[in-house]
Amino acid sequence: MKILKKNKNKLIRDKYGILTIKKIPSIIELKEYYQNIYWKKKYVKYSKEEVNSFELDYKLIHYFQNKRKKLKILDIGCGEGFAARYFIKQGYEYYGTDFSSDGITNHQKKFLKKINFLQCDIVNDDFFSDKKFDLIICKNVAEHVINYRKLLKNINKKLNKNGILAVIVPNEFNKIHMEYMRKNKIKNLENMPFYFPPDHIRYFNPQSLKKSIEKNTNIKIQSLMTTFPIELFMLNKNTDYYKNKKFGKSAHNLRINFNNLISKSFDENSIKLFEGFCKIGIGRQILAIGKKY
Fold first, then answer.
1. What is the mean pLDDT of residues 47-54?
2. Rounded to whole angstroms, how far apart are CA atoms 243 and 11?
3. pTM, rounded to two decimals
4. Do 285 and 170 form a contact (C-beta atoms < 8 A)?
5. C-alpha–C-alpha distance, residues 229 and 227, integer Å
6. Which of 33, 47, 201, 259 is the most exposed place for a label (fewest CB within 10 A)?
7. CA distances from 117 to 11, 38, 77, 113, 145 (A)
8. Is the pLDDT of residue 41 over 70?
9. The domain 6-292: what is its CATH number?
10. pLDDT at 40
11. Beta carbons of 92 and 65 less than 8 angstroms apart
């Protein structure tokens, strides 16, 4: 598929405050990208420390389940299946969907027999239509799909009353990013180094994510968190991982070490820490936790 140049695809702000690219790819182009390009080039062999660090997101989500013994989970856009790995070990029933099966089959061979997986169009196909779920996870999906509102409507239909929705998206153009723009005299949002059309179709902040969910579903947001503020490194020329590519691995390792440190002593103070990051406007990813009423 033809990749649109950054400066040829402007961002426009919708009624929820979400920044969206003006020239959106077709469904055919997007399917081709994810089935034939995205996962084919994304296979990575993770270290044990990296795999352990991925569990922090799921511990944050699990906290809001009040230690329920039975849980039916739907993971929309399950990718490499690390949510499956975590929740199956907790004894829960897990269902996952994605455009491609490559990620989950490459990384979760040990758990494949316990994973209910369906390869499909995660927005337009009516997957697992005979089931409803107690927890729906949507991690690093909303920024990629063409019809975000339809995705939300499908989630609302599939989520049980009092069920929990967990959405994770990048926290774009946050306080540190805007300072980076000022220091580097970057005038246009489209010239920021993390602007990746057509990979990312839309760019969220905590407020726009919350508003879009609550306006399109019967789900009320209970908690807004943001993760380790790795973007802090952008503020120093020696540690700016976009300009100093060699530091990128060090920045990544620091984030992994931080996540594992928090994960080992995880409790309600961990929730307060990440909610605090969100309140002051920093943190690389947003985690929104909502409950259906």
1. 96
2. 23
3. 0.93
4. yes
5. 6
6. 47
7. 34, 19, 11, 10, 19
8. no
9. 3.40.50.150
10. 56
11. no
Q: Which of 292, 116, 285 is nearest to 218 (CA)?
A: 292
Domain layout of the chain by residue ranges:
6-292
Q: Find, among 268, 287, 267, the residue nearest to 277 by Cα.
A: 287
* Backbone dihedral angles phi then psi of residue 290, each to the nearest 5 degrees: -130, 160
If you average pLDDT over every residue of the chain, what do you get? 92
Nearest-CA neighbor of 5 among 146, 178, 188?
A: 188
Angle at 99 between CA 98 and CA 100, to 5 degrees: 90
Residues, the chain = 293
Give me the numbers of helices (H) and strands (E) for the chain, helices first please: 10, 10
Are 192 and 11 in contact, with CB atoms under 8 Å apart? Answer: no
The residue among 50, 47, 9, 2 whose CA lies nearest residue 192 is: 9
pLDDT at 284: 97
| pLDDT above 60 for 56 | yes
Q: Collapse the DSSP code of 191 into the 3-class scheme (helix H, G, I; strand E, B; otherwise coil) and give the result.
A: helix
The arithmetic mean of pLDDT across residues 244-272, rounded, is 97
* CA angle (127 as vertex; 292, 101 as ends), nearest 5: 115
Grade residue 1 by pLDDT with cuts at 50, 70 and 90: very low
Hey, how many other C-beta atoms are within 10 angstroms of the C-beta on 144? 22
pLDDT-derived band at 225 (thresholds 50, 70, 90) equals: very high
pLDDT higher for 137 or 99?
137
CA distance 65 to 63: 6
High-pLDDT (> 70) share of the chain, %: 93
